[in-house]
């Protein structure tokens, strides 16, 4: 007879001494940060909890202000649609966040100021590379010039993409992103109303289209060349309508989950999440 | 060989769909609400988490505003020193909260308004009664005219106390409390600078004195008549210096924990915490 020892190491119970982290989005049901970071806290023996916050854009500044005034709250994650607003409200931001025009993590510094960082781009490129889809030298089409799209654009060019075409129905924010990219990587990024799908090696959806069951697809996969990689940043559902359609036509696909999987170590370093002394 | 089956029913893991409750105080390390309500959520199979928020008085209004704008947050508990401020900021309050001048629970109503209730008084009197210290017909001295003190004053008079003397170094708030009590129970409550300990049947500490190791005691137990009951509302430490000193002189003592123990059912009803259908 074998004894199966159950894992009883579950979450640290929440008490008055528990430190706080929050993740803000609208909607927020799909965020995976709570199910990734809370088990990490438990593994490290850190008395902390990350909770999801559903906040609409008109209330974002007020909610963020309230969170930063909680003395036992140490960190904030920000997701769609608040990443650009978070950049404007941070006391200081990293160069990566500056270029991306978006912040997805805020940390309380020892002097009480809140500094913003962006890991979307680095996390996405790390995931893409580890899946064997190296962006270096490739022609890439990116749908969406919002927070995630901007961060991914900067990271793809930093990783050596030959050319990047960004598409977004908001002409003003598209123009602004291309201008920021042009400063750092002149001549390698353009903005287009219609995606040049026929020449793409990799196409990335960085719009929110695909989160809701009745969303239209961000583009038609029928115009893609054979072997073109189709990547999505949407994490829930894992198999978006776009990825299903691409897979049905034989395209290699890349799931949104990879972006966050590869951000976990980056978050851990940023939030200085070390096991307490003696563990 | 006996098989011991471990209880694996632990907390529901936190995900993006988890509903939120918060408890606000300064300090907040001592609050027991997280360790009482989170296990209750787990027992009922409710996907919700209560987290502690440390907020100083100058930031209370901003933090409360931010919390009420979180669309997935359903309830707020308030403890020292924010109960009077919570009354002012609630959209509507119950009669019990109105008389107490303090709110310790806020609930989001279906129309989006936030209504405030106060369970300190009812919880305290229920605990005192179940411990055999019936307040009816007794002469009672109450130290502290703040949020907890005001709520307890109203509940003690409602429960038939013969006379209540309230003491507080803040003369203005003491006068205001006695005026509110006088409206409902004329001639049965007075405010005094010095507690008339020699004639008391029950003395209640409703000040924060005793939470910190170097706090002075709220009054000297040496002046109490024999058999006078000494009650504290402080929950942590359980054995305050006051209760230790009273016990050493042979007085019956009543711990602060009873107040919250007897509030749990009241909170459950107020927040409409029922097991999901089918459980």
From TrEMBL, chains A, B:
Keyword Amino-acid biosynthesis in record: yes
Domain Shikimate dehydrogenase substrate binding N-terminal span(s) in chain numbering: 23-105
Pfam family, one: F420_oxidored
Sequence ranges assigned to domain Pyrroline-5-carboxylate reductase catalytic N-terminal in this UniProt record: 139-211
Pathway: Metabolic intermediate biosynthesis; chorismate biosynthesis; chorismate from D-erythrose 4-phosphate and phosphoenolpyruvate: step 4/7
Keywords attached to this entry: Amino-acid biosynthesis, Aromatic amino acid biosynthesis
Name under which the protein is recorded: Shikimate dehydrogenase family protein
Source species of the chain: Streptomyces mutomycini
């Amino acid at each position: 007879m074998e004894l199966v020892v159950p894992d009883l190491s579950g979450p640290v119970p929440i008490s008055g001494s528990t430190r706080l982290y929050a993740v803000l989005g609208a909607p927020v049901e799909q965020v995976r940060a709570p199910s990734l970071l809370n088990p990490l806290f438990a593994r490290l023996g850190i008395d902390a909890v990350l909770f999801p916050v559903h906040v609409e854009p008109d209330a974002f500044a007020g909610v963020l202000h309230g969170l930063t005034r909680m003395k036992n709250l140490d960190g904030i994650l920000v997701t769609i649609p608040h990443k650009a607003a978070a950049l404007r409200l941070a006391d200081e931001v990293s160069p990566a966040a500056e270029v991306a025009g978006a912040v997805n993590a805020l940390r309380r510094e020892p002097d009480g100021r809140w500094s913003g960082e962006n890991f979307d781009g680095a996390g996405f490129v790390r995931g893409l590379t580890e899946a064997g889809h190296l962006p270096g030298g490739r022609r890439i089409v990116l749908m969406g010039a919002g927070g995630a799209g901007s961060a991914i654009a900067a990271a793809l060019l930093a990783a050596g993409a030959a050319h990047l075409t960004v598409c977004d129905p908001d002409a003003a924010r598209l123009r602004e992103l291309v201008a920021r990219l042009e400063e750092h990587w002149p001549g390698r990024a353009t903005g287009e109303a219609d995606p040049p799908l026929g020449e793409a090696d990799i196409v990335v959806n960085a719009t929110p289209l695909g989160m809701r069951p009745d969303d239209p697809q961000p583009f038609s996969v029928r115009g893609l060349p054979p072997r073109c990689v189709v990547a999505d940043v949407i994490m829930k559902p894992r198999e978006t309508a776009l990825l299903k359609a691409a897979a049905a036509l034989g395209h290699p696909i890349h799931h949104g989950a990879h972006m966050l999987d590869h951000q976990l170590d980056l978050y851990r370093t940023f939030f200085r999440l070390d096991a307490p002394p003696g563990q």
